[in-house]
Amino acid sequence: MKRVAVLYGGISAEREVSLSTGRQVISALQDAGYDVLPVEVGADLVAVIEALTPRPDAVFNALHGRFGEDGVIQGVLDWLEIPYTHSGVRASALAMDKAASRAVFASVGLPIATGRVINIGDLAENDPLPRPYVVKPLNEGSSVGVEILREGENRRHEIVREWRFGPQALVEEFIPGRELTVGVLGSRALTVTEIAASHAFYDYDSKYADGGSQHVVPAVIHPESFTQAMDLAVAAHAALGCRGASRADFRYDDTEGEPGRLVLLEVNTQPGLTPTSLLPEQAAFCGITFPALCAWMVEEAQ
Fold first, then answer.
1. Structure pTM?
2. Which tens digits make up the pLDDT trace of 79-129?
3. Which of 1, 78, 128, 223 is deepest in the core (most CB within 10 A)?
């Protein structure tokens, strides 16, 4: 029987999400017949390494956010020579760094929003882009720290005062329309989901709170746009050098009719596997049970 260690928890702003993902994965892998070793990760890296001694056959990386999906824990596991799920060091680091991933997407001709990196202090004095625009941390996931500045709002000083995400930020044009996402397993796109958030945008609460959003699977959009979203998700996965599972997020501007304009926002190399997460929902739509999905990830571990 293959012994699989599940790393979950972590020390990022997404710890609670990771704990939820980890609990789901532990149960699913047990159902799939694996010998599962739960490893709740905290600030003590030595304790994590000791928990992985003797080495398991594979690690299921259920961590989210910084130190979990930015290449850091991947480097540790490479050093320990333990195969692990999801992407490796380079792809993880690129995907987590929004400025770096934008550069990669632009280099291969994928559609991205107009934007640039700013020093966050400069936001207090001037609008860096015409309104509306979006302000994002460079290295956070789950919409942590994301703000939308619209006409008539006077929140620049407040955003700067409460900023906790480093000296810089990414600002991008706000794309009107709808939120879409596409899960990818290996080189296969699963389907397109439309996300209707209960809040102003698909923020942290919309992603993880019960009733925070509604998912339309498959999305009811123009067939050409549906196919394009699937193709773009696979292309983005490949451009970053991802492996295993990923999820590409898009804005779809259909305000002037369909087919609309698709804009790639980001690729998530550690898609959530919580009860409200999108990737398991898409897999189920394609006939893949949650235990089978988790087992596939383990068998793809490198």
1. 0.91
2. 999 999 999 999 999 999 999 999 999 999 999 999 999 999 999 999 999
3. 128
Rounded CA separation 26/37 (Å): 8
Cα–Cα distances (Å) from 104 to 21, 91, 118, in that order, read 29, 11, 19
C-alpha separations of 135 from 105, 145, 230 in Å:
19, 8, 27
What type of residue sits at position 201? F
Q: How far apart are CA 218 and CA 228, in angstroms?
A: 14
Residues of the chain where predicted confidence (pLDDT) is lower than 70: 141-142, 198-212
Tokens of 238: 């490949």
Half-sphere exposure (Cβ direction) of 200: Cα atoms closer than 13 Å: 8
CB 173 within 8 A of CB 196: no
Rounded to 10 deg, the angle between the 15-31 and 290-299 helix axes is 90
Compute the C-alpha angle 62/191/106, nearest 5°.
Answer: 80
Strand ranges of the sheet holding 168-173, from the earlier edge strand across to the other edge = 115-119, 168-173, 133-136, 147-149
Q: Which residues are catalytic?
A: 14, 142, 208, 247, 249, 266, 268, 272
All domains of the chain in start order, with CATH? 3-85 (3.40.50.20), 95-111+176-269 (3.30.470.20), 115-173 (3.30.1490.20)
